[in-house]
Amino acid sequence: MPSEHLLQVENVSKRFRVRGKTLHAVENVSFNLDSGKTLGLVGESGSGKSTLGRVALRLLDADGGRVLFQGHDIGRIPKKQLRELRRDMQVIFQDPQASLNPRMTVGAAIEDAYVIHKIGTKSDRQQRVEDLLQRVGLPPSAANAYPHELSGGQLQRVGIARALTLDPKLIVCDEVISALDVSIQMQVIQLLKELQKERNLGYIFISHNLAVVEYISDEIAVLYLGEVVEHAAAEDLFKKPSHPYTQVLLQSILKVPDPQSETTQALMHIKGEIPSPFSPPPGCTFHPRCPFAQDICRTKKPEPRDIGHGHVVSCHFAE
Ligand code: SF4
Question: Which tens digit of pLDDT belongs to each residue from 153-168?
Answer without folding.
Answer: 999 999 999 999 999 9
